[in-house]
Amino acid sequence: LGPAPGADPGTAPGTARWDDLVERTPARRGPTTALAAERARQARMAVVGPVTERWAPEQAGPVHENWQLAPPIGPATDLWALGALLFRAVQGHAPYPEESTAELVQMVCAEPPAFAEECGPLRPVVESLLRQDPTERSDVEELRGWLRSLVRSAPEPEAGLNVITAPPVDARRLPVVRRRGELVRRRRAALPAQQARHRRSRQKTGSPRRLGRTLLLLVLLAMAAAIAYAMLFMPKAGEDTGGAATDRTGAVGATPGSSDPDAGASPRPSDADKDAGKDDDQGGGKDDGANGDKESAPSAETQTTGPEVADGYTLRKDPEGFRVAVAEGWSRTGKNGSGQVVYAKGDFELIVVPGRDSAAEYGSDPMAYQRDDERELQPYRDSSWATSTGLKSIEVGGRSMAEGQFTWTGSRGDLYVRNLAALIDGRYHVVQVRGPEGERDAVTRHFEQAAATYQAAG
User: Fold this and answer.
1) Per-residue pLDDT tens for 352-408?
2) In CATH, what is the architecture of 250-258+300-456?
3) Which residues lie below 8 Å from residue 377, measured CB to CB, with a gap of 6+?
4) Which end of the chain, N or C, is surrounded by fewer C-beta atoms within 10 Å?
5) Is this model's pTM higher than 0.85 or not?
6) Where along the chain do its domains lie?
């Protein structure tokens, strides 16, 4: 056989040069010779610089004779970059010194990274991603499951000592829209000087001190206007609002026939009327004295003195001792073994738990009760795919409540759930609406009506 094409005639047939192409190898992207690979590595060192995330061991290793047998650059390289980024974000510095690019590429190949001592629960994740052998690093699916379990088991951050109480919502007022942007506009560039006969006057620019005085004056004027509006238009304490819509914090837990000034408009039936079977809510005049222990159908009449109910909803008086607004056409299921009263239609459910659990057993923190102990959210805790958003605590008038939005995969598919847990007279009351994940607007509409009108009996 003659010499290889392109080879030096003076070179022995059995030896290969540094820049010779490897025979009988498939076409590949990137350098085709060892010399080209080393040149590419040196050029990358000059361009990238000392950044640990960009120098995995398979990228930083020197080029040897069998350079094509080196570990390939692929998804494992991206996992190395993710591990270095997590280390830097938690520890505050890189896992290797980044003073020199040449020293960095040598240390990445020869020495293990620094210990992730301050990474907490992320330490095993970071250490598994920063292994020098790319075949020993965690794959993408294992890493995703690991991170999902860490996020799900992370404790809920505490609100702290300075908790701001949300003011009551006035349905008659429009929300205040706050615009984001620069407080001071940038001045436009001055027009180029034109040749003129007369000398141009010097433009006057406002000083920072003058700008500060202007802003302070505007703030004071806005405060004065807000105070004047509050004194003139907002209702005073103890004044009758004339049938205005009751907000959620005032409706949840209100007892029918309590000290509300309007409670006298709908008196309770006397014991004699009950014994005689005069039940106005049923409207049939039937005698229920013999079946007092049996479950009776809830009242569907609209309460004129209760919270305002939207069109398509009816304020029902439930035999279990509460009132709640339910969409028309929904059927009721009596109290089950879990203490739940269910109103349902189609794929939607309204679950009401009137005081099943006590604060003496589960504590007096509604957020902790909702997160850890509420039975209606147990499918969320057991689901392999679940999310929670909008978690918030509400403290108004000595009453504690917790709200949240949850999604999980159940037997009927993906569910979207709105939940309210209120602590009333030492017992937890739950109002929960479930529906398909694609019908979020309908679930929110049903939940807002139920939560705003729920009233527990005294």
Assistant:
1) 999 899 999 999 999 999 999 999 999 999 988 889 999 999 887 778 899 999 999
2) 3-Layer(aba) Sandwich (3.40)
3) 370, 371, 406, 417, 419
4) N
5) no
6) 34-152, 250-258+300-456
